[in-house]
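Q: How do we represent a protein-ligand complex in a form that can be generated token by token?
A: Start from the inputs.
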Amino acid sequence: MLSSTCYSTFSIQSLNPTCPFTLHKPQIHNISISQITRTRILTCIINNSTSSKRMASVAATNEVGVEDQNELKKGIAELYDDSSGIWEDIWGDHMHHGYYEPQSSVELSDHRAAQIRMIEQALSFASLSEDSAKKPTSIVDVGCGIGGSSRYLAKKYGSTAEGITLSPVQAQRAQALADAQGLGDKVSFQVADALNQPFPDGKFDLVWSMESGEHMPNKEKFVGELARVAAPGGTIILVTWCHRDLLPSEESLLPEEKELLNKICKAFYLPAWCSTADYVKLLQSNSLQVTNSTNYYPLDILFLAKLFSFPANRLWLIWQDIKAADWSENVAPFWPAVIKSALTWKGFTSVIRSGWKTIKAALAMPLMIEGYKKGLIKFAIITCQKPE
Ligand SMILES: C[S@@+](CC[C@H](N)C(=O)[O-])C[C@H]1O[C@@H](n2cnc3c(N)ncnc32)[C@H](O)[C@@H]1O
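Then emit the structure tokens for the protein with S-adenosylmethionine bound:
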């Protein structure tokens, strides 16, 4: 059974302050962490007034200057332009971790199946219904790579899918593969920024982001865009790299932990990392913002809330169904397998031919293993539903 975590209050701070793409020094905020691990869906309740104050703090710590953002985006686009071809050649069209049963013995041939399992596990964690009346009909794939998830999901649900990536090479290849598979009328790709998505509000009933969140220099804006493009009743599935949650006694990561993350940031074009708790908090706060801006609460709801003496935002958040889980153990065999494939003659020569950015990323792969082993890096899934 999958375990999920519900967070009631959180610490929020900039977690990799010396990262090359972060201009801000660490700012520590109100720290009060309470985590309850449960095995099923849990509802999350937070206090409205303190959460909006903390929200402002998240925004401040996540800011990355425009110049830094542009430099980062350029680096990401070039990294994937250069490396997507060799990845596809060796690993196929999914550029994400596989999902494995903990401690299972893993055959090399199992890795592609494990990547599909990752998609299925994510859908199942989000309780996405197999009931045909409730299947998603329109999907956005935020940070789509060469479109593996978009095509898989479009085929599975018979839905449309729109993918966005920063890499022109990826967008072109993703479309070519969709056309070749007869999906050209259902699936489309374009170069666009996840922080400024070219879609109207409420367009998609499944918002999918598989391992792109770690590249986003403004997590608040990222989460805000995911929430904005989700249709009422739609599901958001966010699978991403995080650093560990801080302990109640901690104000920041340890210096050696920051140092390790910095090295990974440089190689993979990542800005500051955040924790799973930070993402959950952002989703919760985002709901509150939506609530405020649309005058969501009708007067009778406010009256009822007052009558029964609980904060009105409980009514809203109970419907959010925010769930999170740590799948680090389930992805453990992945990086060793990638390193093994890079050490074959084909892998080695392809990496060298792809240029310096790909070489740098390949050299950083053992650092990911080190991060996981130290419990610093967490492979997180966070899902929620936008209220109807
Ligand atoms: C590791 S790949 C994951 C690809 C894909 N989700 C998959 O599972 O195969 C990361 C993707 O995130 C995209 N990305 C990173 N930052 C982005 C941004 N600001 N806007 C849109 N896409 C972004 C990259 O272009 C790349 O396609």
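The first strand starts at residue 4 and ends at 9. The first helix runs from residue 48 to 62.
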